[in-house]
Amino acid sequence: MVFIQAILSNLNRKMYKVLYLLSLLLIIILFCFFPNLELVNASHLTINTTQLTDNMYIIHGAGVNVVISIGDDGVILVDDQYAPVTEKIKEVIANLTNKSIKIVINTHWHPDHTGGNNYLGESGAIIVSHDNVRKQLSEDQFFEFINLTIPALPEKGLPIITFSDNMTLFQNNDEIKIVHLDNGHTDGDSAVYFTNSNIIYVGDDFSDRSYPFMDLSRGGSIFGLISSLQKILLMIDNDTKVVAGHSGISNETKVKDYLYMLINIKNNINTMIQQKKSLDDIIKSRPTLQYDDIYYDHSFIKPKDLITNIYTSLINKQ
Ligand SMILES: [Zn+2]
Question: Which residues surround ligand 1, an ion (CB under 5 A)?
Answer without folding.
Answer: 110, 204
